[in-house]
Write a structure and sequence with these properties.
The chain is of the alpha/beta class. It folds into 2 domains: 31 residues; 305 residues, no CATH class. Helix content is 35%, strand content 17%. Strand 13, helix 14 and strand 14 form a beta-alpha-beta unit. Helix 6 runs parallel beside helix 16. The radius of gyration is 26 Å and the shape is globular.
């Protein structure tokens, strides 16, 4: 009996000691979390600004949103959160296949009609046949399907599923803008295929649920008016598919891919295309992009980091971008991102995504100008245009609140180029934003 009492007493002491240690640890972590100077403001892995401490109002106090905002701020900006999120992702990656996405769930795409209207003549001369050499390189690799990302060996690809409803809306918007600018400016449309439609080996294509991008682009262009100038780059990129034209760990194209598209735009618009050999070249290694982050930091992708290669345009050219708050900031057209976090090195180009950007090349004095209306795929493309225009205006329609046609008319712009990766043409939210900026 006496031994039982001793054992029971020891258990109580151990339990109380554990409770004290737990309580002290919890209190220490809570105090640490309240040390405002230590709080992060930006998430590298999620590529977003973290929640700010809410502004107090009587209304927010009574409707509960003020205290909810404090809770969101506390959890979102807890010191060391980035490390904890990273550790959590690494643990989850050991579970096996994860469910992730970049532009939405993988769903069955709509059937792509053969044509919208009798198609306009476009680029059809390049060879689109998979070479035996290219197929041989990757046909034995392991593959994984992770939500909206297909991983073949150590390379990621984003699924694409055609939406006829949204494609028809996109066609309608381009036609409407051409009508808006008739007699004022030429409207060019460049729909950029993504890597799953170009560099994914053919022997994988029939095994995954991803729509035919060539057929989708042909359909979209076939519905556009004759005065929408179609820059069809699908076959051009297919003819270079064995080259480094898309990143391995990110959904964007590389600068080389963007350059081949620039060559096609030069053919369509009649501008002179400066050869790559004439540019000063910069390289920023260690880029691990959206596929890496959105697949739980997959080790296969981590072992295959990308290099951001940039070609620097005329050094006399100056760039100023305008933030969402209206601040004007002078910035390099191509910025040195050597010391940037590994996930945001693509922001080397034109300062990343901003509502409005203006680039002036003083060495071109003919008052020529272009408006590039884009999402992030346009960033790597824009620097090449600096060699051809006195003014290059860049509008990111996801954040811009004005009218593109109104701006073009007011500033006597003669060329308006829409650059969208093909996933944007099936995205209802993006098409709504595009519509709001016509």
């Amino acid at each position: 009996m006496r031994n039982d009492k001793k054992i029971k007493k020891k258990r109580i002491v151990v339990y109380l000691a554990q409770m004290c240690v737990f309580s002290l640890t919890l209190a220490a972590l809570t105090i640490t979390g309240l040390l405002i100077p230590l709080r992060p403001e930006y998430s590298e892995s999620e590529k977003r600004k973290l929640a700010e401490f809410p502004q107090f109002t009587v209304k927010s106090l009574f409707d509960g949103s003020y205290f909810k905002g404090i809770g969101d701020w506390y959890s979102d900006t807890y010191p060391g959160r980035e490390l904890l999120v990273g550790l959590n992702s690494k643990i989850k990656s050991r579970y096996g296949i994860s469910s992730v996405e970049i532009h939405g769930d993988v769903v069955e795409g709509d059937e792509i009609p053969d044509e919208y209207v009798p198609p306009a003549e476009d680029e059809t001369t390049a060879n689109t046949t998979e070479t035996e050499e290219f197929d041989e390189i990757i046909k034995e690799v392991d593959t994984q399907s992770l939500g909206a990302v297909f991983v073949a060996g150590n390379v990621g690809y984003e699924y694409y599923n055609f939406s006829k409803e949204q494609a028809d809306r996109y066609i309608s918007l381009m036609n409407k803008q051409a009508a808006n600018l008739k007699g004022t400016a030429k409207v060019y449309s460049m729909v950029v295929p993504t890597s799953i439609g170009i560099t994914l080996p053919d022997n994988f294509k029939n095994t995954i649920n991803s729509s035919d991008q060539k057929k989708a682009i042909d359909y979209i262009y076939s519905g556009m008016r004759d005065d929408v100038y179609k820059v069809n780059i699908y076959n051009t990129l297919m003819s270079h598919r064995s080259e480094y034209i898309y990143f391995n760990t990110d959904h964007h194209w590389t600068t080389l891919g963007a350059y081949y598209a620039y060559e096609q735009y030069a053919v369509s618009s009649g501008i002179e295309c400066k050869p790559l050999s004439a540019y000063k070249k910069a390289e920023y290694s260690g880029f691990l992009g959206s596929f890496y982050n959105d697949t739980g930091k997959l080790p296969e992708l981590e072992k295959n980091p990308d290099t951001v290669v940039a070609y620097i345009p005329n050094e006399n050219a100056k760039m100023v971008y305008t933030t969402a708050k209206g601040e004007k900031i002078s910035w390099p057209i191509v910025n040195d991102v050597s010391s940037y976090p590994q996930s945001i090195k693509y922001s080397a180009f034109i300062g990343g995504d901003n509502p409005f950007t203006e680039i002036t090349n003083p060495d071109i004095t003919d008052n020529s100008s272009i408006v590039v209306v884009k999402e992030s795929f346009g960033n790597a493309f824009v620097p090449f245009l600096v060699e051809n225009y006195h003014k290059v205006y860049v509008i990111d329609y996801r954040y811009y609140t004005g009218s593109v046609s109104g701006f073009a008319k007011q500033n006597n712009v003669k060329d308006v180029l829409y650059i969208n990766n093909i996933s944007a043409t099936r995205n209802k939210s993006l098409i709504n934003k595009l519509q709001n900026t016509l």
